[in-house]
Amino acid sequence: MVDPTSDLGEDVDEDDAPECATCGTKIVQSPTHRVVTRVEDGRAHHRHFCSEECLADDDGA
User: Fold this and answer.
1) Could you tell me the end-to-end alpha-carbon distance of the chain, in angstroms, rounded to an integer?
2) Are 12 and 28 in contact, with CB atoms under 8 Å apart?
3) InterPro entries given for it (predicted)?
4) Long-range CB contacts (< 8 A, 24+ apart) of 25-28?
5) CA-based torsion, 25, 29, 46, 60: positive or negative
6) 3-state DSSP call for residue 46?
7) Pairing with 50, which of 13, 30, 37, 40 sits 20 to 30 Å away (CA)?
8) How is the chain split among helix, strand and coil, in percent rounded to 5?
9) Which helix (H) or strand (E) holds 55?
10) Is the pTM of this model over 0.85?
11) What pLDDT score was predicted for residue 1?
């Protein structure tokens, strides 16, 4: 699997692309892609968002 969080987002197939945590849209080569990372119990958890609007609308679940 290609890393969907790479700096450039190149060569990410839609099947491997992350989904927006708010609206469920597949995120492929999007300049508005945002990732929120938190650490719980020593493990990193990532939530992907397709836009600032979806990030702002996130309920944090």
Assistant:
1) 26
2) yes
3) DUF7576
4) 25/50
5) negative
6) strand
7) 40
8) 10, 25, 65
9) helix 52-57
10) no
11) 47
> What string of DSSP letters covers 4-25?
TT-SS-TT--TTTSPBPTTT--
pLDDT in tens, 8-42: 556 677 888 899 999 999 998 888 999 999 999 99
> Nearest 5 degrees, angle CA 40-CA 44-CA 48?
115
Q: Where are the domains of the chain?
A: 1-61
pLDDT of 5 reads: 59
Contact 24, 47 (CB under 8 A): no
Q: Which two tokens stand for residue 1?
A: 């699997």
Residue type, position 9, single letter: G
